[in-house]
Amino acid sequence: MNLIVNAQDAIPDGGKLTMSTSLRDLDEAAAVKLFDVEAGQYAVIEVTDTGRGMDEATLERIFEPFFSTKSQQGTGLGLATVFGIVKQHGGHIWVYSELDKGTTFKVYLPVTGEEVLDKSETRSRHQELRGSETILLAEDSGVVRDLAVRVLERQGYSVLAAADGIESLKLLETSDDPIDLLLSDVIMPGMNGKELHVKIAEKHPDVKVLFMSGYTDEVVGRSGIDGRVSFIQKPFTPLTLAAKVREVLDEK
What we know:
By secondary structure, the chain is an alpha/beta fold. Helix content is about 40%, strand content about 25%. Helix 6 (about 140-155) crosses helix 10. It is globular, with a radius of gyration of 21 Å.
């Protein structure tokens, strides 16, 4: 999605945007020499636009967090997020660009040989992860928030959902139920996840917390979140979310 948005921004007056997928086998020499990854089969996602392109100085910095060519309109986190996701999955991202000619991104993701759980196994696992606790959910993305609410309520939890920190605190004040878990996005407008947790812990010191983010570890770390707290990377599957929530709630 981030690659498509960038390509769209590069052709404001119209142009051509092409997306394709393929499989490629990388032998030992190519894997190490070209991409510094393990040899094997890779799924390749290619996104090409006929837009403005980039010079060499820009190309050297495009994956840096907070570096943006869009002045105040950009956060500088889109490509940093792409880079983080690709690397966390053992992949590689390659880019080629020329000014006024366009840009091509190629994402290499390793193909797994593991078998996918069948539906009966997945349903059984979901049953094991059910609960009845109350969860305060703070997430500014409506799509992610709605998904998390559906998953958690289906697992038996009571969910109070808010779009940001301020709304979360207001919900907490009006709720008669004790909050067992704060499930919060790390980076939100106005108040980040750690700041929200600090405020809630002042009145509810025993509340447990699970942070989530789609940004890279470096960006998350700048928000004060480190390896000592529970964390889940977005995007997540319903099963992954249910398992992590249950794990945090069961911690002594």
